[in-house]
Design brief:
Blueprint lengths: L13 E4 L3 H14 L2 E6 L7 H5 L2 E4 L12 H11 L3 E3 L9 H9 L3 E2 L4 H8 L1 H10 L20 E5 L9 E3 L5 H16 L4 E5 L5 E9 L5 E13 L2 E7 L6 H17 L4 E9 L5 E7 L6 H8 L3 H9 L15 E8 L1 E2 L5 E2 L2 E3 L1 E3 L6 E5 L5 E3 L6 E9 L2 H14 L1 E3 L5 H8 L2 H4 L7 H10 L7 H44 L23 E8 L4 E7 L7 E2 L5 E6 L3 E6 L2 E10 L2 E5 L4 E7 L13 E3 L4 E6 L8 E2 L4 E7 L2 E6 L4 E6 L6 E2 L4 E7 L12 E2 L2
Parallel strand pairs: 1-2, 1-4, 2-3, 4-5
Antiparallel strand pairs: 6-7, 6-8, 9-10, 9-12, 10-11, 11-14, 12-13, 14-21, 15-16, 17-20, 18-22, 19-21, 23-24, 23-30, 24-25, 26-27, 27-28, 28-29, 29-30, 31-38, 32-34, 32-37, 33-36, 34-35, 35-39, 36-38
Helix pairs in contact: 4-5, 11-12
Length: 701
């Protein structure tokens, strides 16, 4: 079969996407618009995933772990041939920058929707790429040899030579920590990319992550499609991106565009790619890497330039030229926020479980890219990103405001997410003033995750209580209606039986006690715990003869309407609406400017729910990958010492000793699969030691 690499032209009719989730769904959307049949691949964990449901055809990859499924190029190629596909799109992540996979696709007679194999090889290793870029005149940060690094070289940034996404990346500020961090970075890089090579370079404090989208065809045309700023990051992974990058003067923009085009031409690039730069606080750019694939943040460029980058990728793969020698003119500003299932206040801890509701406002200038719908499950095997929300408007101020408001009004029920953090980040003075840098969350995370001004969980808990009271009253009335009919039928049956025995059928039926009421003299009370901060709220209410429950001892609050799923209150003269959704003991309350999650608490605590002091519990489902050297029962440990490493959702998490003392129990071993809350170990505190707060398990990346 003809491929685009030989310059010939052909037509793609059936495309397999060698990926999952949001990016697979996004590529399928373009394919539907172009009349291309779509093929999904899926692991056992993704059997009912949205990308499988949306595809025309789907092929199973047996297993659940990425190494057994989405990273098996031989299985993906076999799936493409089995489904009759004539082309493969890799998406991003997994095998998207694997030159051997690209070659295998072409060797199988399939079209590879990506750059030439040689270009991938040249850019696959960041160390080799930097050598190539130096020859092309692209500005670089000088590498540092870890073996000879000294105090003057600190801080250092360790990076995986292959792959991206923050995997295998560490900031080292003390020389004593360098050997251990090198080992940890290499181990994570080997696990994520199959290549443990890492390198070091100077870490630029308060630098900006600025990138240039390039698009090239096989006829010599290379477009530089503006700039993107991706500086707001956690764990070296992007959270909020925007186009164009704000605050760059025209000379710097031109220099970045020229460097990006030079990088693309240096490797004879085809298709979509991104050249990433670090811009120092004094405005000097340094080449970081070239991603030989589509980026997660590509929608902001699409919005500003009015393009479909996936359609252009397919067109380039078919051998077609770009529509014109120069790219279209940009218009307006676009901002993207990545909605993750994670708890930013607890070390960005990934979350899992059922995504009960996912509703994001629609309207002009708004776009949602997601791989989930309400009712899906967020599992432990893959990245915890739920969706990307994108806003486009004539100005940056308008785009930021539109995105913040859309996120604020979104209904996201299920695992804890970073939604509130995103809203606060977009409204933070530094971001509003277009002063982003990669240290933003290092400086502001505590403030951004603190209990928020303008939030009113107590009133939200009141609304939840009133809705619950109405729901309970309706259930009682329904039961009484059903019970009354049953009682009449039961009395008729008794009379019939007695008549058959010769007993008078006119004997009065037994009296029922349905007319008796126990009217409480005290108000009823309900307790809720706010999630995830754990604050408890107790709400008192009465239900008068009107049947509409009323708050007790809550001055300034009046109930206007109350149903099981919607409550309207007048609070200090202002009418407020509350949408209530209950899932078992978990209650979600959504307002027009905030969302709250509560757990309904029982009147009495179950003693079985208490955990022994010093217990180390798994913060999430995952796999135990290693233990601290020599860790066994009876050893002495120090407060804050890493004891157990847990791998979940493509990241490693350290479980720390909660206090100094003796390890009295160890229930974890490498290879063990554990569920959230599973007991891993117990540390008996030494009474002579100084008590310390129990630390939150932190992530190593």
């Amino acid at each position: 079969m003809t491929t685009a690499t030989d310059g010939a032209r052909m037509t793609i009719t059936t495309l397999l996407v060698a990926n999952r989730g949001e990016i697979a769904c996004r590529i399928f959307r373009t394919c539907r618009d172009l009349g291309i049949t779509t093929v999904a691949v899926y692991s056992d964990a993704d059997a009912d995933a949205l990308h499988v449901r949306e595809a025309d055809l789907a092929v199973r990859l047996p297993g659940a772990a990425p190494a057994d499924t989405y990273l098996r190029g031989d299985l993906v190629v076999a799936a493409a041939r089995a489904a009759g596909a004539d082309a493969v799109h890799p998406g991003y992540g997994f095998l998207s920058e694997n030159a051997a996979f690209a070659a295998a696709v072409q060797d199988a007679g399939l079209v590879w929707v990506g750059p030439p194999v040689k270009a991938i090889e040249l850019m696959a290793s960041k160390t080799r790429a930097k050598e190539l870029m130096a020859g092309a005149g692209v500005p670089l940060l000088a590498p540092v040899d870890p073996a000879t690094a000294g105090e003057a070289d600190l801080p250092l940034l360790l990076k995986a030579a292959s792959g991206g996404g923050g995997r295998g990346m560490r900031v080292v500020r003390e020389l004593d920590a360098l050997p251990g961090e090198l080992l940890a970075a290499a181990a994570e890089a080997a696990s994520a990319f199959g290549d443990g090579e890492v390198f070091a370079e100077p870490y630029v404090e308060r630098g900006r992550h600025v990138e240039v989208q390039v698009m090239a065809d096989a006829h010599g045309t290379v477009w530089a499609l503006g700039t993107r700023d991706c500086s707001l990051q956690r764990r070296h992974q992007k959270v909020i991106e925007e186009a164009p990058a704000p605050g760059l003067d025209e000379a710097l923009r031109t220099r970045l565009h020229e460097a990006a085009v030079a990088a693309a031409r240096a490797v004879d690039y085809r298709g979509a790619g991104t050249v990433e730069f670090l811009v120092s606080a004094d405005g000097r750019p340094y080449f970081l890497e070239m991603n030989t694939r589509l980026q997660v943040e590509h929608p902001v460029t699409e919005a500003v330039f009015g393009l479909d980058l996936v359609a252009l990728q397919l067109r380039a793969a078919e051998g077609e030229p770009l529509p014109s020698p120069e790219p279209p003119q940009p218009s307006g500003h676009a901002v993207e926020a990545r909605l993750y299932a994670e708890d930013p206040a607890r070390g960005w801890q990934p979350q899992t479980g059922a995504l009960l509701t996912l509703e994001v406002p629609e309207g002009p200038g708004l776009r949602l890219d997601t791989g989930y719908t309400g009712g899906d499950t967020i599992g432990v095997h893959y990245d915890p990103m739920i969706a990307k929300v994108i806003a486009h408007a004539p100005t940056r101020t308008e785009a930021v405001r539109l995105l913040a408001r859309a996120l604020e009004r979104a209904r996201v029920h299920g695992p804890v997410t970073n939604r509130d953090l995103l809203v606060r980040s977009l409204r933070h003075p530094d971001f509003a003033a277009a002063r982003p840098d990669t240290g933003f969350y290092d400086r502001h995370l505590a403030d951004l995750t603190a209990p928020g001004a303008g939030r009113d969980p107590a009133t939200a808990a009141l609304a939840a209580t009133l809705a619950e009271a109405v729901r309970g009253a309706e259930a009682v009335r329904g039961a009484e209606a059903a019970g009354g009919a049953g009682a009449v039928r039961g009395a008729d049956a008794v009379r019939g039986t007695e008549a058959g025995r010769g007993v008078s059928a006119h004997r009065p039926a037994p009296a029922r006690f349905g007319a008796w009421r126990n009217v409480p003299s005290q108000p009823q009370r309900k307790r809720y715990r706010s999630e995830p901060d754990g604050t408890e709220h107790e709400v008192a209410y009465r239900t008068p003869r009107t049947g509409i429950p009323q708050p007790y001892e809550t001055p300034g609050t009046r109930v206007l309407t109350a149903t099981p799923d919607r409550v309207t209150l007048e609070v200090d003269g202002v009418t407020r609406h509350f949408a209530i959704t209950a899932h078992g003991d978990r209650v979600h309350v959504d307002t027009t400017d905030a969302s709250y999650t509560f757990t309904a608490l029982p009147r009495f605590t179950d003693p079985a729910t208490h955990t022994a002091p010093g217990s180390l519990l798994a913060p999430m489902p995952g796999t135990v990958v290693r233990l601290a050297d020599g860790l066994t029962t009876g050893v002495t440990v120090e407060a804050g010492q890493p004891l157990i490493w847990l791998e979940a959702m493509k990241m490693e998490h350290r479980i720390l000793a909660p206090a100094s003392g003796t390890l009295t129990a160890l229930h974890a071993a490498p290879g063990h699969q554990v569920e959230v809350g599973a007991l891993l170990a117990v540390v008996q505190e030494d009474p002579a030691a100084t008590p310390v707060p129990v630390p939150v398990p932190e992530e190593t990346a």
